[in-house]
Amino acid sequence: MCRTNKEDIASISNLKNNKQIIFISPKSKKKEKKKQITPFSTMENAVQEIVAKQVLTVAKAVEDKLDEEIHALDRLDLDDLEVLRERRLQQMKKMAEKRNRWISLGHGEYSEIHAEKDFFSVVKASDRVVCHFYRDNWPCKVMDKHLSILAKQHIETRFVKINAEKSPYLAEKLRIIVLPTLALIKNAKVDNYLVGFDELGGTDEFSTEELEERLAKADVIVFEGESSRILSKSKAQSKKSVRQSTNPDSSDSE
């Protein structure tokens, strides 16, 4: 009869219970760990290194640009700043002189020329002139309303009016037939005309802004968009008829 030792008895007992015992040496455990960690950790480290290099590159570029701007400001010494300041003061001085000259010539207000001979001195004195040939009727009063607004907004241009019926020589020479007519004058020469309301929608309910834009197209005023309308109402409000503020005293006929 064969003898069985204690280990054999234990193995048989485990097999009966459908259990398997696997013994792994310490060396095999180390090899298994290396196989599981190495591939993933290597790729992750590589990605992190690439991202870090890109971030550093971008940061360096931004830093260099800021340094360049700071150095440019540092290079502006007191003399440079004084030159810029003096240049700006000269520009402001010239503009102030222009404004004073314009005001002395009657710019900034809408005035009437009472004698034909005065027309020539007015157009020679100013580079830009808008002259309204009118008669005492409703359409001409509508035009007066808008021109009085624009005269205050566009100090660079002289706005005047003259009675066409009392100025037969000018009316014939400039071929003024339909009233109101605006003679748009540049450098002492009539450059363009605005006859009646046809170019303003064919109605007396046109806005000051529409007239302003038409004058700007003729380059008889300096047009700056919304900034040139500081003294006027919004476009929606200015669409209202001027009849609300002025009473007509005659028909629309000439």
Give a description of the structure.
The protein is 53% helix and 11% strand. With 254 residues, it is α/β, with parallel strands linked by helices. It has a five-stranded mixed β-sheet with strand order 1-3-2-4-5.
In short:
The protein has 254 residues and is of the alpha/beta class. It has 8 helices and 5 strands.
Biggest sheet layout: 5 strands, mixed
How many β strands by DSSP? 5
Amino-to-carboxy terminus distance: 148 Å
**Helix/strand order, N-terminal first:** HHHEHEHEHEEHH
Q: List unreliable stretches of 5+ residues.
A: 18-23, 226-236, 248-254
The shape, in one word, is elongated
Helix amount? 40-55%
Structural category = alpha/beta
Total DSSP helices: 8
Alpha-carbon Rg, integer: 45 Å
> Taking strands numbered 1, 2, ... along the chain, how are they ordered across the largest sheet?
1-3-2-4-5
Strand coverage percent: 5-15%
Kindly state the mean pLDDT as a whole number?
A: 80
What characteristics describe this protein?
11% strand; elongated; five-stranded mixed β-sheet; 254 residues; disordered C terminus; 53% helix; 8 helices; alpha/beta
List the helices and strands and how they pair.
Layout: H1 6-16, H2 26-75, H3 78-104, E1 110-112, H4 116-125, E2 128-134, H5 138-153, E3 158-163, H6 168-173, E4 181-186, E5 189-195, H7 208-217, H8 235-238
Parallel strand pairs: 1-3, 2-3
Antiparallel strand pairs: 2-4, 4-5
